[in-house]
Amino acid sequence: MEDTFSGSQRRIDTLVYNQPAPDPSVLACPHCDLMQRLPQLAPGASARCPRCAKELRRRRADSLNRTLALALGGTLLYVIANSVPMLSLTIVGRDASTTVIGGAQHLWENGQAIVGILVLLTAVIAPAAQLACILTITLASRRSPVPRWVGKLMRHYPATRTWSMIEVMLLGVLVALIKIADYATVIPGVALFMLGGLVFVLAGMQASFDPYEVWQRIEWASESPARQASGLATKETA
Amino acid sequence: MMTRSLTAMDHGLQSCEVCGLLSRPAPPADEGRCPRCGEAIEFRKRASFEYTWAFLIAAAICYIPANVLPVLTTTTATGSVSDTILQGVVLLWSPTGWPLAIIVLVASIMIPSAKIVALAYLLITAQRGSIKNNRQRIRLYRMVEFIGRWSMVDVFVDTFTAALIQLQPLMSVEPGPGLIFFAAVVVLTMLAVESFDPRLIWDAAALQEVAHA
Q1: Does the pLDDT at position B1 exceed 70?
Q2: Are residues B15 and B96 in the same domain?
Q3: How many domains does the structure of chain B reveal?
Q4: Is B123 found in the same domain as B82?
Q5: Residue A213: enclosing H or E segment and its boundaries?
Q6: Domain of B162: which CATH number?
Q7: Is A144:A136 a contact under the CB 8 Å cutoff?
Q8: H or E element, residue A155
């Protein structure tokens, strides 16, 4: 879907590779296109665009290993959160409980299929895709040079981040919980606490991930002379 | 501070939206593939104004049924009541529940309408070539980008309320027809934000500087 918006599928076969700019530390701000040289950054330091203050890069100490560790922890929380009940309710001797997927399923079965799919996408599928992307990227980036297909994952990672809305869902669940508490006894389930943890783990994972580090070591799509010139490791592909 | 701010486009260079590499397209062409990641790149997002307007107008249209149609229908032994988003806020309003009412009011009513107005303002000023308040406008764009997802909160509230309160014949809650329009407003405004190219805010300024140079 996103491809249609950026027009990247159009005439892709007829496009030729651009010539890379001679100095790899010169880049343009993604928000205002101002050309600038990215300074050498110490771990923990960040660089911002002087014109529009967009953060261009934030360097993290041991970025890829920490990101991998958080992604593994996040995966564990995610699996538990989606396999146990999130909310239970007791009213005059009757019980009911629901999981995250159960909420989407209920919409699907009650004439709100599209909203059901949206809930499934934002609360279940996108977070899973986000975790899977990061796990694969950080694991594959241990190789040198980083294989080309990692670039494809890096390209789609921001979309999984945009549509993964665990934190928004959690707020929604809390509002629903307090709303229902007027009529019945609501018991927060284990999944609710797992989701609470997952929000912080995902935030930490995003903050510790430094895509620049992966791009610097990735195998180039084109056989460009600048690649050798910039001192990047070369490896012939079959 | 900076008398002449040179952009990559002024140099004939394209910045890859995926990996950030600067590269130069082969002379006659104005688009090419990024040599590092292989992504098709252009100077600016293709038809950014048109796509953003299209999503924004669609969102504005959906905004009406989203607020007029009920999002939740509560059925009890005595009958059934349908609530719109605003009625839901009023119902939540109580001596103890008012903070929640404010959360829902802000997330469901104020954020979506503010987003539509803010994006329309950004589009109109960028299309008219405004060079005023560039920093404030880029800040507004980032705020809209950051805050937009929180409008989804009401969709989740209604989803889990309906999923949990299934105690027929005592009480049951079902999602109403307004929910899909409300979800559409959220999704369409998010797509509008993504299709807007913030660099367009600055392009007019670059042209003016060249004219005065």
Answers
A1: no
A2: no
A3: 2
A4: yes
A5: helix A211-217
A6: 1.20.140
A7: no
A8: helix A149-163
Task: Kindly state whether residues B156 and B199 are assigned to the same domain.
Answer: yes
On whether both B107 and B21 belong to a single domain, the answer is no
Contact B184, B212 (CB under 8 A): no
Range 35-64 of B in CB contact (< 8 A) with A: 35-42, 45-47, 51
Phi, psi at A47, each rounded to 5°? -120, 135
CB–CB of B38 and A154 under 8 A?
A: no
Burial A99-130 (b: 16+ CB within 10 A, else e): bbbbbbbbbbeeebeebbebbbbbbbebbebb
Pick B161's closest partner by Cβ from A115, A179, A220. Answer: A179
Q: Measured between CA atoms, how close is B168 to chain A, in angstroms?
A: 10
**Residues 114-173, chain A, touching B (beta carbon < 8 A):** 114-115, 118-119, 122-123, 148, 151, 154-155, 162, 165, 168-169, 171-173
Task: Give the best-scoring range by mean pLDDT among A13-27, A118-132, B15-29.
Answer: A118-132
For residue B18, give its domain range.
Answer: 1-43
Q: How confident is the model over A194-226, as pLDDT tens digits? A: 999 999 999 999 999 999 999 988 988 887 544
Chain B residues whose CB is inside 8 A of the A105 CB are 163
Same domain, B167 and B98: yes
Q: What is the pLDDT of residues A79-102, one digit of tens each?
A: 999 999 998 888 777 788 889 999
Please count the residue pairs, one from chain A and one from chain B, whose beta carbons lie less than 8 angstroms apart.
272
Tell me which residues of chain B, numbers 132 to 171, contact chain A at a CB-CB cutoff of 8 Å.
134-135, 138, 141-142, 149-150, 152-167, 170-171
Q: Are residues B18 and B58 in the same domain?
A: no
Give residue-wise pLDDT tens across range B115-169: 999 999 999 999 998 888 899 999 999 999 999 899 999 999 999 999 888 877 7
pLDDT of B145: 94
Strands A46-48 and A55-58: antiparallel
Q: What is the percent of chain B where pLDDT is above 70? A: 93
* Ramachandran assignment for A161, one of left (phi > 0), alpha (psi -120 to 50 degrees), beta (any other): alpha
Q: Say if residue B123 is in the same domain as residue B202.
A: yes
Whole-model pTM: value is 0.88
B210 touches chain A (CB under 8 A): no
* Whether residue B139 is found in the same domain as residue B174: yes
**pLDDT higher than threshold 70 for residue B210:** no
Banded model confidence at residue A120, pLDDT cuts 50, 70, 90: very high
Residue A59: exposed, middle, or buried by beta-carbon count in 10 A (0-12, 13-18, 19+)? Answer: middle
Predicted local distance difference test score (pLDDT) of residue A200? 97
